[in-house]
Amino acid sequence: MKNRQNVTIKGTKGGLVLHLDDRCSYQELKRELDDKLTANLRTQEERHLITVKVEVGNRYLTGEQREELKELIRKKKNLVVDDIESNVITKEEANRLKEENEVMTVSRIVRSGQVLRVPGDLLLIGDVNPGGTVIAGGNIFIMGILKGIAHAGSFGNDHAVIAASSMKPSQLRIASHINRAPDSNPLTENREMECAYINDNHQIIIDRLQALIQLRPNLTRLVEGGH
Amino acid sequence: MGEAIVITSGKGGVGKTTTSANIGTALALQGKKVCLVDTDIGLRNLDVVMGLENRIIYDLVDVIEKRCKTHQALVKDKRFDGLLYLLPAAQTVDKTAVKPEQMKELVEELKQDYDYIIIDCPAGIEQGYKNAVAGADKAIVVTTPEVSAVRDADRIIGLLEKEKDLESPKLIVNRIRYNMMKSGDMLDIDEITQHLSIELIGIVADDEEVIKASNHGEPIALNPNSKASIAYRNIARRILGESIPLQPLEEANKGVFSKLKKFFGVR
Ligand SMILES: Nc1ncnc2c1ncn2[C@@H]1O[C@H](COP(=O)(O)OP(=O)(O)OP(=O)(O)O)[C@@H](O)[C@H]1O
Ligand SMILES: [Mg+2]
Fold this sequence. Notes:
The structure holds 2 protein chains of 2 kinds. Chain A has helices at residues 26-43, 63-74, 91-100, 211-215, and strands at residues 7-12, 15-20, 50-55, 79-85, 103-107, 115-118, 121-125, 133-136, 140-146, 149-152, 162-167, 171-174, 177-180, 194-198, 204-208.
């Protein structure tokens, strides 16, 4: 039917890398993959699990197709799929990624009963009043007073942080972690900017803003240094 | 063409009706033609505070449902020589009897004949609130120096800010007790204003004369000698565009703002 190899298998230290050609039809690819894996398995009678990384080049796979390929590979006894890598994503996904990496600047007071939600980082010029909520897929930076609820990393990003000129939150949330304000009110007025992050013990910690410089170097987005 | 101002608060019992009656009275004393509109359907009492209860023949719902002409339902306040009128709320039906579009139409009609339409809003954020806000050009939010009242004011301000036809709302802090404020047992005016971030248009002391006056159907603003009366008259003049600083007696008691943090946002 054809001479070209649509499926190539490479062994590496970390396991197998399956390269799947991106020009043939999906059906063809599936058939060949099945054949190849079956043939290959007979030659190596190893018992331990082998991780498989799948590269599909410039082929777009739907969620369904991804599952199908994973299933097909998994069925070959000792193979486990680590990842399927494709060079292409849909416009929708691209937009979402872009949004999640954008800083949204909002200038207003988030009042009692209001919810402000952004996909990426939030830069709020204003306060969050008690009963108000801000939610961000990324980090939250509040130039005013945080008196309500802030939820950073709402899609599950543990590394997200919350910073505010004045931290008096009723509740802090990062990813799935929640930190309620203490019931007692220390009268000492903290005049420093503060930040909140998740530490290695999975607890939300409140610290001086400057702590982030060490803890979250990735916050720096500037690609080239100015010197 | 007049201007419609809604007096609202979120929380009940903080002084919306008292404020409506006294601002209306003070504006009429300044020679403006004023129509008070009570939108608290089912729980009307602006008529009682104004001492006009006995003269009611028709009400707001009668006008909306076209059982009478608008001018037939307006109760004239004899103390003001044709400057002050009241459109009373209905007592017998519930709030759903009126729709926002109908209110808007009515307020538009009143604006042809009056300089100021003062709309007394019911407590809450439901139908009654929506009706009251529907025809308004401006809003005044009344709060007391209590955490719960300020919280509700914040909620209401958030809703008012979404109304495209409304100017940014103004704030009145009512029932201030200077001693408590000084001792840090009551929220401070600066603190409230900063927290709500809207412009303060007046402050009114907690004054038993206000209650006495209301009970006699004579709004306190008619009495030139009381502190609360001066406060309401000043608010009226600020509405008219005069820039009047907070009264010295008011001012002296402002700015006690340290210790009070504990009342707000925890921690
Ligand atoms: N400055 C004041 N000093 C003393 N008492 C006051 C003052 N303002 C209002 N009051 C009293 O507080 C009570 C409630 O006031 P009012 O009826 O105006 O509130 P409201 O916000 O209209 O209430 P509702 O939400 O029920 O409509 C009344 O008894 C009134 O006399
Ligand atoms: Mg009332």
